[in-house]
Amino acid sequence: MLKLGARYVPLSSIQQARQRHIEEKWVVEVDLVDNDRFIVELAVWEDALARTPQQMIPAQSGTYMLSPCFDPPFEIVKEPVIAWALTADGVIAAVTNNGINDGGPGNEPILFPTGEVRSPVANWNTFGEYEAEQRAVAEGRPVNAPVAADA
Predict the structure, then answer these.
(1) Which candidate, 8, 19, 15, 45, places its Cα nearest to that of 32?
(2) Mean per-residue pLDDT for 69-96?
C-alpha cells in the first residue's frame, strides 16, 4: 500500500506510473487498473516509494539504531532493530518498533552485533569510538580531541 498524501493506493491496483513535467513542476501520473487516473507531485511519489517496504528481512539480535541525546545528561539511546526493509527503489532501511528508520530520515547510525557502528556518512570500528565522538560533539570539543583524564 502506497500512502500518497491523504490517499492510500494498493500496489496491485497501479497499472502504470509516468513521470511528467507539467506547469514548471515534476509530477507522476498514475493509472489504476479500474481506469482511474490521478496526478501526484514527484516528491510525494518518491517519498512513498522510499517508505514502502517490498520485502522484510529479520535483523540479527543485538542490532540497534543509535540516537545521541545531546541535552544534559548526554546519552545514546539504543533502539532495537527488528528487521530490514527493502523498498521498491532498492533502499535498505532499518525497522524498529517505531517504524522504518525509527520514524527518522534514515541516516541514523546502526550498531551491529560485531560491535561496529555504521551510517550512510561514517563508520566506527567500535561503539566506544562512536560514543567518544558523539560525547566530544556534545561537549563542544573538536572530534578526535584528547579526553580529560577525569572525564
Answers:
(1) 15
(2) 88
Answer whether the bond into residue 73 is a cis peptide, omega within 30°. Answer: yes
Helix (H) or strand (E) holding 123: strand 123-124
Name the burial class of residue 21, with classes exposed (0-12), middle (13-18) and buried (19+) by CB atoms within 10 angstroms of its CB: exposed
pLDDT in tens, 104-143: 767 899 999 999 999 988 999 999 999 999 998 888 887 7
Beta bridge partners of 84: 57, 94
Contact 76, 69 (CB under 8 A): yes
User: What is the domain partition of the chain in residue ranges?
Assistant: 2-51, 54-139
Cβ–Cβ < 8 Å for 3, 48 = yes
Distance (Å, rounded) from C-alpha 28 to C-alpha 15?
13
